[in-house]
Fold this sequence. Notes:
Structural class: alpha/beta
Number of helices: 16
Number of domains: 3
Largest sheet: 9 strands, mixed
Order of helices and strands: HHHHHHEEEHEHEHEHEHEHEHHEHHEE
Strand content: 5-15%
CATH architecture of the largest domain: 3-Layer(aba) Sandwich
Helix content: 40-55%
CATH class of the largest domain: Alpha Beta
Radius of gyration: 22 Å
Amino acid sequence: MLQSAEDExxxxxxxxxxxxxxxxxxxxxxxxxxxxxxxxxxxxxxxxKIPGVGDKVVKAILAKRTLTMAxxxxxxxxxxxxxxxxxxxxxxxxxxxxxxxxxVVLYTKGKFDFNTAISIGIVGTxxxxxxxxxxxxxIIKDLEPYKAMVVSGLAYGVDITAHRACLKYNLPTLGVMxxxxxxxxxxxxxxxxxxxxxxxxxxxxxxxxTKPDFMRFxxxxxxxxxxxxxxxxxxxxxxxxxxxxxxxxxxxHRDVYAVPGMIGSGQSEGCNYLIRxxxxxxxxxxxxxxxxxxxxxxxxxxxxxxTVQAQCSFEGFTQDEGQIxxxxxxxxxxxxxxxxxxxxxxxxxxxxxxxxxxxxxxVRSLPGKKYGLM
Length: 374
């Protein structure tokens, strides 16, 4: 018999494999029912009342066909040394947890800390030039004193160049996969993937045996953006996966940098476009980026941000304003997406309230899309 904690994992995996249910709906179900196991204990009348849950989804849950599959999957993960991080777990990455479309579970292999102080996504074209290789390796080398974690997608080109440079300069690096952990893609990068697990590792939201179908790569890119404080595009065509990652980073209110390239170069067309249209800051050096982001050699980890000690009165503010001020007083510098998650406010409304509080001299904006008390 499985222990209760293991049972909850099985029920959560069963929800993930239930047809017609995505990560947002699963969070909704668990939130309303009080746990994944309680979702399967609920009846039709209880489930159909949950917002966003329709008749087909309810019937699929009540059929409970995925429970056996989920139990076997958990056994296979335990046998293969794969760690599971559910969004309700303390081990789940703090950078992902506030995001509305964050994966319900992450499968990982390796030795790393999701909540390292500095995390940088490095992405780019598969058709990397000698210039792109040189820039990528220089970025990694210059990041070494900051012990930053580098996140990329294990693909050809910029991705694998970044991962291998991290191995060379002893920086932790995560490869986010569009497949199951037992399906390394491309196959030629399997050795690098194994070496990465000694100082970093492999991450995916996909179950064992999942093939890297085309549709899974954009989903993979959102995880790269979500795990990164800043995304750096080294080289990119005008269309491609790197620009999809940039879109996700912008939606998550994360910073984006692009390395400028030679005019007329197909590999740099996308980067030059991002800079031209003010969708990315121009990357000039790690030193300049570190200064702009407000990082230092002892940058605090995202789950250990020091609390603000200053005392202040929230009298005279609206209830929503007071809630924001109280959160900032409790947590210190906080990214806007985490504020939205903690407060339950839509980001458009939250942005307006933060602007008003800035005008009143109560709140200040900080590098990295963060806000703090004055």
